[in-house]
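Why do we care about 3D structure at all? Because function follows from shape, and shape follows, mostly, from sequence. That is the central idea of this module. The next example makes it concrete: a single protein chain, its amino acid sequence, and then its structure expressed as tokens.
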Amino acid sequence: MWAGVTARFRTFHQNLRLTDDQINEGTNHHAGVRRSLNSHYYGSSSESANSFLIGSWGKYTRTRPPRDIDLYFVLPYEVYLRFESVQGNKQSALLQEVRRVLQGTYPNTNLRGDGQVVVVSFNRMSVEVVPAFLLQSGQYWICDTHDGGRYKTADPKAELAHIATVNDN
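And the structure:
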């Protein structure tokens, strides 16, 4: 009996896992987005600096079919200071700037600012970029464009650490 359950579970698990091609495609997408933003904001060609994955890609819980890749991109403090002088919805203006930067790299790709993220819609999956400012506490300020705009405090690394601890236990 257990042999049949084990075989069915393995088949079920294999059907959920992303294929190597899907992993490579997603990795290329988020690496390209990171490189574009690093080039603009830091003068670097890094595909990983100043950013980290969250959501299913950050937690290694991604499943087929892949839909989106969630990415925090940490902006320089100088960008925060520059947007503090903007009249009106600073957070919306910041999302639109990040969208324009990415539009320069991906001119034929649909991009939009949406609440807290900039969505880069590739053919089979999207990259959702969360522009963030690192706080001294280790938490982040992220944009919330609703109701005139504000920054929300987020702690995605604490969430990932909690999930890892629960999994280990």
